[in-house]
Design goal:
Layout (H helix, E strand, L loop, with lengths): L6 E6 L3 H4 E11 L3 H8 L9 E5 L2 E5 L20 E4 L2 H11 L4 E11 L2 E11 L2 H25 L4
Antiparallel strand pairs: 1-6, 2-5, 2-7, 3-4, 4-5, 6-7
Protein name: SsrA-binding protein
Family: Belongs to the SmpB family.
Keywords: Cytoplasm, RNA-binding
Length: 158
């Protein structure tokens, strides 16, 4: 039996880094049913509107869309059901303390397989305002211009 190695990304939340300032990241396991795992292995999932909450000392991933398994029968799963996340107790307690601060949320960044197990990368994040987004875009454009000028000077152009 050959074990799967490495990290295979299933879904990314690309808009998360645009809308949120990431302060810290956590890796959490997922409690999934069999048909959910099979659907994920086909590379089907969406994190677009997903978020995580802490309820009664447990972390739950909400609003993640994992479509029904095409080969499944009546045992298929609910596509947008809440899924329990597996974190260490001290990580959950740290998250509870930080979430009580105003404006902090848990946002999933990636859903992936790590050594054959489904994982989610959670970000402790603060929402960006419009002027923060404009500043980030301006910084990115400025860095692109700098990189372009350096590349042109290395090639002998003016």
């Amino acid at each position: 039996m050959v074990k799967e190695r490495g990290r295979k990304v299933i879904a990314q939340n690309r808009k998360a880094r645009h809308d949120w300032s990431v302060l810290d990241t956590y890796e959490a396991g997922l409690v999934l049913s069999g048909t959910e795992v099979k659907s994920l292995r086909q590379g089907k999932a969406q994190l677009r509107d997903a978020f995580a909450t802490v309820d009664d000392g447990e972390v739950w991933l909400r609003n993640v869309h994992i479509p029904e398994y095409t080969e499944g029968t009546w045992t298929n799963h609910e596509p947008r059901r809440s899924r329990k996340l597996l974190l260490h107790r001290h990580e959950i307690e740290r998250l509870v303390g930080k979430i009580k601060e105003t404006g902090l949320s848990l946002v999933p960044l990636q859903l992936y397989f790590s050594d054959g197990k489904a994982k989610v990368e959670l970000a402790l994040a603060r929402g960006k305002r419009a002027h923060d987004k404009r500043q980030d875009i301006a910084k990115r454009d400025m860095q692109r211009e700098i990189d372009r000028a350096i590349a042109d000077s290395r090639k002998g152009r003016r």
